Amino acid sequence: MQSVTDSGTHLHLDATAVKVLAHPLRSRLVGALRLLGPATATALARHLDTNSGATSYHLRKLADVGLVVDTGEGDAKSRVWAATAEFTQVESSDFDDDEDAATALGWLERDWLRHFTEKFGRWLDVRQNWPAPWRDAATMNDTMILVTADQLRAAHTEIVAVLDRYRRVGQGNPEAKRIAAYVVFYPVDMDRPPRRDTGRSAR
């Protein structure tokens, strides 16, 4: 299901979409279209160092579940594709009764983790070439918070709202750069999950 926010669109992945997206090339194709904008299968294959036949096949599979769309700007031999949303949302509990979808989501999240490690590692390699204000702002921080599940969801919602406000704030400014932002939460005490029968936690 695709939704519109004040500053962009997001796609909430259902079980079918997760199963389709959980593929090394398909995940990269959606990411490339979000990064590059509309492109042909040939251009995407060149960018991702693969062949256009495989790229075309996987784009059609992504289109079947609404992750990409044929813009209609190309022709039968050179279709122009675009991502249907600027970012993706998914909740693991949606797939509690679908083992295949849960497995696909696990693969997909680990793929996103590999992507983050690769890209942020690249930034660490080249950041000394950037001015100090950018080096100081584009960094990594971590902290710990003590919250209930409901409070954590509220915090997540607030952070996403901040990102929405800044999504296009630099548009038209030649000094603005595109920035990737990752929002990640995980329990510190992973071996001590809360009891399942306690109901919803208080705020």
Largest sheet geometry? 3 strands, mixed
Rg over CA atoms: 19 Å
Shape: globular
- Indicate the percent of residues in helices: 40-55%
CATH topology of the largest domain: Arc Repressor Mutant, subunit A
- Let me know the average pLDDT: 89
Describe this structure in words.
With about 200 residues, the chain is mainly alpha-helical. The chain contains 7 helices and 6 strands. The protein has helices spanning about 15-20, 25-35, 40-50, 50-65, 100-125, 130-135, 150-165, and strands at about 1-5, 10, 40, 70, 80-85, 85-90. The strands form 2 sheets. The protein has a 3-stranded mixed β-sheet, with no helix packed on it. The chain has a 3-stranded antiparallel β-sheet with strand order 3-5-4. β1 (about 1-5) and β2 (about 10) form a beta hairpin. The longest helix has 28 residues, at about 100-125. The relative contact order is 0.12.
Task: Write a compact overview of the structure shown.
The protein is mainly alpha-helical. The protein is 46% helix and 9% strand.
Task: Identify the notable features of this structure and list them briefly.
mainly alpha, three-stranded mixed sheet, globular, three-stranded antiparallel sheet, disordered N terminus, 203 residues, Arc Repressor Mutant, subunit A, 2 domains
